[in-house]
């Protein structure tokens, strides 16, 4: 069984107008929370979590992947990220050839910083590019320039690291040509992995308030669908294949960490607001599938750690029905598809080829080696495909 570690770094220089993640600026924090001691606190949480695992009979293998996300992990000194990574290696171990990724704001890294990460064992950098068009970047409250992204990618290449870029489509005022230019710029960088996400506007964000007030237009579903198709066409033509609804990679360059989430492996989430997931253990009768989530605010999270407590805000058992729902939802997001044989082992009602034929006829899925694989139309209408499958198994 694979095991993954996620490290959440909740700090940002400023809050982007669309962002609804668990992030904090210095102004937000006040009190005693500090970027200066964050690495030390994260390492202590890892020790506490390891102790909790052993107390509950959970013996995880060496981590196959480690992912630093945020927030802006690269707001911390490179040495702090390397210290945390070294502690993962000491506490759980990291398997040979493990994938070690950090997200990076292009404004916060230079060649020396990236070289230091490579020396510490990092193998991959995911740059928050979002767009290559200046007016779209301004709308998203991003301060970097396309030149900063290219400088980061080139530095990663020189350091022998893989690189990825994240894009966002559907920003207010972004034309189809703007989006096409952003995707083509990402391709021209020569990266081997691209993530492209539709803009989701939450009402509590700055952008959400602007849209509610009518000062920015609301994203349009048809526009976002057209932009998804543009991305899929351009990236596929450039040799990057879709392997998850929002992710494309050259063969062999997929994000192993993200694939682990979609395949429902065990992972420990470390840091304020981070989630963890543990599968049931046949050898531990009382161990049910479990998810937990850390206290969100860094100061309260830090207090729990200082008191030697696992800093969870809560946890819940994953019921068999919920587990079945997750199996379907996650399987239908990936190119590998939903394994019909596995589904029928756990579903109360068996699903046959005849049952899924209507979805094939509608052009939503194909069947490949007993796996249900969404077509591009099925990716665009992923919720519809999932609901059809829920109905087939009676959940």
TrEMBL record:
CDD domains: Radical_SAM. Signal peptide: none annotated. GO terms for cellular component: cytoplasm. Keywords: 4Fe-4S, Chaperone, Cytoplasm, Heme, Iron, Iron-sulfur, Metal-binding, S-adenosyl-L-methionine. It is found in: Cytoplasm. Pfam families: HemN_C, Radical_SAM. Residues 1-241 form the Radical SAM core domain. GO terms for molecular function: 4 iron, 4 sulfur cluster binding; coproporphyrinogen oxidase activity; metal ion binding. GO terms for biological process: porphyrin-containing compound biosynthetic process. Belongs to the anaerobic coproporphyrinogen-III oxidase family. HemW subfamily. PANTHER family: COPROPORPHYRINIGEN III OXIDASE, RADICAL S-ADENOSYL METHIONINE DOMAIN-CONTAINING PROTEIN 1, MITOCHONDRIAL. Probably acts as a heme chaperone, transferring heme to an unknown acceptor. Binds one molecule of heme per monomer, possibly covalently. Binds 1 [4Fe-4S] cluster. The cluster is coordinated with 3 cysteines and an exchangeable S-adenosyl-L-methionine. This is Heme chaperone HemW. It comes from Bifidobacterium tissieri.
């Amino acid at each position: 069984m694979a095991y993954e570690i996620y490290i959440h770094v909740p700090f940002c220089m400023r809050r982007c107008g669309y962002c609804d993640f668990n992030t904090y600026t210095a102004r937000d924090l006040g009190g005693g929370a500090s970027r200066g001691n964050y690495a030390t606190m994260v390492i202590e949480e890892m020790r506490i979590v390891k102790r909790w695992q052993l107390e509950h009979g959970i013996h995880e293998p060496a981590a196959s992947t480690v992912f630093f996300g945020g927030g802006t992990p690269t707001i911390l000194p490179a040495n702090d990220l390397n210290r945390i990574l070294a502690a993962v290696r000491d506490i759980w171990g990291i398997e040979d050839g493990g994938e070690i990724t950090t997200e990076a704001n292009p404004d916060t890294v230079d060649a020396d910083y990236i070289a230091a990460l490579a020396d510490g064992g990092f193998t991959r950098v995911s740059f928050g590019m979002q767009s290559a068009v200046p007016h779209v970047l301004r709308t998203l409250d991003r301060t970097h320039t396309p030149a900063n992204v290219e400088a980061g990618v080139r530095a990663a290449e020189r350091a022998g690291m893989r690189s990825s870029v994240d894009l966002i489509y559907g920003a207010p005022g972004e034309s189809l040509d703007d989006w096409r230019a952003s995707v083509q710029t990402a391709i021209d960088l020569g990266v081997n992995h691209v993530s492209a996400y539709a803009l989701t506007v939450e009402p509590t964000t700055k952008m959400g308030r602007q849209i509610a007030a009518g000062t920015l237009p609301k994203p349009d579903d048809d526009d976002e669908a057209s932009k998804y198709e543009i991305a899929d066409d351009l990236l596929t033509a450039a040799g990057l294949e879709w392997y998850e609804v929002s992710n494309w990679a050259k063969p062999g360059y997929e994000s192993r960490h993200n694939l682990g989430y979609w395949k429902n492996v065990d992972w420990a989430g470390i840091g304020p607001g981070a989630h963890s997931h543990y599968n049931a253990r046949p050898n531990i009768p009382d161990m049910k599938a479990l998810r937990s989530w850390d206290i969100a605010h860094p100061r309260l999270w830090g207090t729990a750690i200082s008191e030697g407590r696992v800093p969870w805000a809560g946890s819940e058992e994953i019921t068999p029905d919920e587990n079945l729902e997750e199996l379907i939802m996650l399987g239908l997001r990936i190119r590998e598809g939903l394994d019909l044989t596995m589904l029928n082992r756990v579903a109360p009602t068996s699903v046959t080829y005849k049952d899924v034929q209507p979805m094939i006829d509608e052009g939503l899925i194909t069947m490949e080696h007993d796996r249900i694989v969404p077509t591009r139309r099925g990716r665009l209408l992923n919720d519809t495909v999932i609901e059809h499958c829920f109905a087939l198994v009676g959940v």
